[in-house]
């Protein structure tokens, strides 16, 4: 068996590679490749690719990740989820593909045996090469090592020609190199620009969104490609004290009527909240929130008009999230990103549903305190703080492919901060991308509807008078890259979104 370790000195161009003996760091004693005894004393960072096109593909991924964790692989990052056309053997169903980054004390061949065992447990048999399979697990990188044996080659030998492997692999990186190990992965590329140049050479981001490589988020019974259309999320407040429409929709009948109206006006999603998160709002218990929420949720889900629409629950309580999802809600929208209920992230991970993580400092009663309004660069700091909250979610086993990000306009921000965010959505994505391309690619929810700063700017003290300003801010948000807009007035904002999409399509056609 031949084993080398590569220590990369990349400087700025990843040009120089120093190769030295692996024996300095890792010793392998063996009699044959299949019966090697591996002596290892430290954790190694690894990248593992996942693929599935037989059975419930997403369930196969979830089960594989769970078995990997139980087998001594601590997963730290997840790529986006891709639906891809089959390669090599084309007469078979589309695949789901992704990749994960993690750490393990398992040696490379021991890791390989664990992954093969997981494949077998999930029903994989010896079929045709590149043919259909319930799960496929491949080691792409193992620490800083290059490995070549009769049964294992690392880096995986066909990475560079496969967009369905390279796309999720790139998601596990940041635009800034974050460790010596990642620098060594870049050095394995044949190009001076590292993995980024390798990805660009085969098409890069231009390939994503096409029929053969769609970045998707699993939601309800579908795989949602959010790049194809900006979604309009209608707001249903079941509270007596919400800043805009508190008390209007507390009865089941009034709530159902409002949902019917919003759907008729073009809403793709409905966000139902039974706890006010306006500034200085008093917090109610999870029990009271459920008493308000569940009768309405059950009623609207039974409506014929609800067919094909998505329903989210706006809550920071894990108990409310769990009960709402059990009744049929499709996603959880948490203004605190898990900070107001220590159980929220674990509960959402077990529910296996999409999760909206929003940026907010403090809680609704403290978010506008002076200490929570201090920013040097609001877009940079919102990006950094939001990334850390998503990072916590990932470490709690919520994959990046189930995350929706929200910069939290109006929450712990002054008017000038909100204007900076309106102008700076691309900056927020770019700042997040420095640490995680997967999180930067996540759908972005944007919710400026009738917010106080619009009233201050336009001298409209009454929230209901802020719809024209909302339309303008939604327009800025969509042109800045928002994928979901959360609004009270669905009809006018649907028109604004249609215009923005036509503008963006025209811009793409001329590029």
TrEMBL record:
Q: Where is the signal peptide?
A: 1-25
GO molecular function (one): kinase activity
- For this UniProt record, give its keywords in alphabetical order, as a comma-separated list: ATP-binding, Folate biosynthesis, Kinase, Magnesium, Metal-binding, Multifunctional enzyme, Nucleotide-binding, Signal, Transferase
Keyword Transferase in annotation:
yes
Q: List, alphabetically, the InterPro entries matched.
A: DHP_synth-like (IPR045031), DHP_synth_dom (IPR006390), Dihydropteroate_synth-like_sf (IPR011005), Hppk (IPR000550), Hppk_sf (IPR035907), Pterin-binding_dom (IPR000489)
Q: Which GO terms describe its biological process?
A: folic acid biosynthetic process; tetrahydrofolate biosynthetic process
Q: What's the protein here called?
A: Pterin-binding domain-containing protein
């Amino acid at each position: 068996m031949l084993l080398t370790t590569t220590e990369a000195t990349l400087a700025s161009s990843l040009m120089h590679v120093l190769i030295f003996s692996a024996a300095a760091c890792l010793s392998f004693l063996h009699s044959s490749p299949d019966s090697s005894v591996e002596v290892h004393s430290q954790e190694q960072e690894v990248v593992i690719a996942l693929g599935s096109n037989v059975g419930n593909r997403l369930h196969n991924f979830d089960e594989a990740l769970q078995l990997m964790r139980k087998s001594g692989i601590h997963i730290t990052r997840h790529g986006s989820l891709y639906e891809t056309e089959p390669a090599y053997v084309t007469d078979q169903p589309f695949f789901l593909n992704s990749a994960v980054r993690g750490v393990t004390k398992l040696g490379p061949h021991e890791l390989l045996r664990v992954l093969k065992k997981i494949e077998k447990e999930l029903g994989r048999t010896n079929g045709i090469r590149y043919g259909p399979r319930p799960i496929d697990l491949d080691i792409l990188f193992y620490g800083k090592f290059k490995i070549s044996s009769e049964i294992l080659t690392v880096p995986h030998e066909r990475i560079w020609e496969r967009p369905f492997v390279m796309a999720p692999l790139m998601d596990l990186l940041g635009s800034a190199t974050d460790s010596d190990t990642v620098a060594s992965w870049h050095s394995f590329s044949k190009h001076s620009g590292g993995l980024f140049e390798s990805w660009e050479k085969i098409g890069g981001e231009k390939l994503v969104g096409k029929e053969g490589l769609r970045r998707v988020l699993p939601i309800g019974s579908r795989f949602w490609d959010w790049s194809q259309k900006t979604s309009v999320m209608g707001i249903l407040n079941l509270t007596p004290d919400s800043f805009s429409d508190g008390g209007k929709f507390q009865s089941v009948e009034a709530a159902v009527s409002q949902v019917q109206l919003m759907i008729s006006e073009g809403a793709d999603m409905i966000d139902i909240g039974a706890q006010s998160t306006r500034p200085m709002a008093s917090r109610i218990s999870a029990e009271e929130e459920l008493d308000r929420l569940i009768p309405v949720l059950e009623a609207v889900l039974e409506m014929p008009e609800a067919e094909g629409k998505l329903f989210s629950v706006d809550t920071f309580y894990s108990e409310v999230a769990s009960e709402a999802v059990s009744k049929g809600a499709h996603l959880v929208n948490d203004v605190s990103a898990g900070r107001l209920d220590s159980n929220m992230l674990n509960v959402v991970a077990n529910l296996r549903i999409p999760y909206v993580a929003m940026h907010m400092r403090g809680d609704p009663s403290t978010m506008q305190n002076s200490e929570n309004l201090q920013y040097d660069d609001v877009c940079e700091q919102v990006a950094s703080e939001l990334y850390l909250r998503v990072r916590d979610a990932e470490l709690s086993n919520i994959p990046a492919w189930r995350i929706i990000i929200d910069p939290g306009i109006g929450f712990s921000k002054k008017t000038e901060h909100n204007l900076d965010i309106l102008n700076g959505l691309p900056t927020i994505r770019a700042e997040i991308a420095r640490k995680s391309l997967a999180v930067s690619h996540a759908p972005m929810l944007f919710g400026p509807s009738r917010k106080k700063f619009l009233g201050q700017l336009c001298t409209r003290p009454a929230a209901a008078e802020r719809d024209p300003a909302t339309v303008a801010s939604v327009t800025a948000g969509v042109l800045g890259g928002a994928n979901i807009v959360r609004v009270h007035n669905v009809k006018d904002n649907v028109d604004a979104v249609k215009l923005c999409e036509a503008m963006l399509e025209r811009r793409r056609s001329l590029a």
